[in-house]
Amino acid sequence: MIAHLPVLQVIVPLMAAPICLLLKRAQLVWLFSLITSGLAFLISILLLQQVMATGVISYELGGWQAPWGIEYRIDKLNAFLLLIISAISTIVLFAAQTSIEKEIPKSKHTLFYVLYLLSLTGMLGIVATGDAFNVFVFLEISSLSAYALIALGKDRRALWAAYQYLIMGTIGATFILIGIGLMYQMTGTLNMVDLSQRLPEVAQTRTVFAAFGFVIVGVCLKLALFPLHLWLPNSYAYAPSIVTAFFAATATKVAVYLLIRFTFSVFGVSFSFTTIPLQTLFMALGLVGIFVASTAAIYQKNIKLLFAYSSIAQIGYMIVGFSMATVTGLTATLLHMFNHALMKSAIFLALAAIVYRLGNVQLSSFHGLGRQMPLTMAAIVIGGLSLIGVPLTVGFVSKWYLLMAIIEQGWWPVAVLILLGSLLAVIYVWRIVEVAYFKEPLANQTPVKEAPLFFLIPIWILIIANIYFGIDTRLSVQVAQSAAMTLFGVTP
């Protein structure tokens, strides 16, 4: 059984999705989905332990040897991502049954869990596979279920958000597929390891340059890099709250993983950062994204929209680290992928609890909420402090490594810009704190109770993780650093 863990990571949720349709009671479907996700989480822990102890795991589907057959290849980078995705999925699912009661019609509850498990399958598949075409297949599984999940939102604007995401996502997927097709045309293989060995021979051809361009633009659309981010704010704001909590923590991280995988493992560091000047372009887009999205967040009255723009800014930090093409810079990016998943899932789960009690997340409804829902609001405040990068939170660890990477290169102006970007986060987090703690409830506002335990337990598991991994950084830093060194060909 241990030998089959790489494929079980994907097969378990894939097989569980249609089984949900056979279970008639909504509570039973929820419990089954939770157990399935928990099993995927357990498999990801075992895979990470195995990879850290013995190195890369190669699994040949059907016994067909790569590159003729499809290979699932688990190294430190994707083992880390598998852990993030499956952990967040399991924690978020714990609150799903309570959350969707108020936001999704009862007749669609089973459909929700089917789509959720398919989306989880797609993300795990993208990360686990070592085959470039398989990446596209799993990307489509994940994306199509994501469009449908967003459309389940009770606000009619959810349909427009899903349609917008569908159009942008389809363009992105098409670009990626064209890029993969061009690589196949030049090398005759789709296996990523094989591609990395054959591409250098034809690296200076226009076809490979075009392939690289198509893949990078397609992936950047999927990860919502400024200015290709227009699909994200509405998708996060109008999707069911539990869907937002899951996607905000995982979907863009998977796209950042793809960017790292293609640039470092497939095309190679030399081609990606020397032959093509990616450094300057990504550094500029990352920094502009931080400032534009953070400024947009300050003016939002819908708190889900506010944190959606904040997510675009946080992607900017990841891209700045990536653009430096150094071990420390890439370590900062991988750390922020892990840390941002903890922050955003906690914040959006807390907002899901507020939607459950209030029916909306407009800033005007937050008057006096700090006293009425103290545990939920405390979670949002701690998550906000983590976004800012306050010491003893995970956000501080990410930004510390990012600043270290920038200072190593002697880029002091960039370091100043990163610190200024964090100050913008202070402003939009303070707006929420001010209304919730320093303003009296409105006269016509009915008193609200604290969130149910089914919300509070997962929210505070994530908040405690925000603080724990901000103090004890051994696991996150060790895995991120080791993965970054391996990608650069340095022995850890």
Strand-helix topology:
Blueprint: H1 5-19, H2 26-54, E1 57-60, E2 71-74, H3 76-103, H4 109-128, H5 132-151, H6 157-187, H7 192-198, H8 206-222, H9 232-238, H10 241-266, H11 269-275, H12 278-298, H13 303-323, H14 327-358, H15 369-372, H16 374-388, H17 394-408, H18 412-438, H19 453-471, H20 474-487
Antiparallel strand pairs: 1-2
Helix pairs in contact: 1-2, 1-4, 2-3, 2-4, 3-4, 3-10, 3-14, 3-19, 4-5, 4-10, 5-6, 6-8, 6-9, 8-10, 9-10, 9-13, 10-13, 10-14, 12-13, 12-18, 13-14, 13-18, 14-16, 14-17, 14-19, 14-20, 16-18, 16-19, 17-18, 17-19
Q: Can you give keywords for this protein?
A:
mainly alpha, 2 strands, 492 residues, globular, 76% helix, two-stranded antiparallel ribbon
**What is the strand tally?**
2
Name the helicity range: over 70%
Strand order of the largest sheet: 1-2
Outline the biggest β-sheet: 2 strands, antiparallel
Distance between the termini: 29 Å
Spell out the helices and strands N to C: HHEEHHHHHHHHHHHHHHHHHH
Detail the poorly predicted runs: none
Number of helices: 20
Alpha-carbon Rg, integer: 21 Å
Which of globular, elongated, flat, extended, rod-shaped describes the shape?
A: globular
Content-based structural category: mainly alpha
Mean pLDDT: 85
Query: How large a portion of the residues is in β-strands, by DSSP E?
Result: under 5%
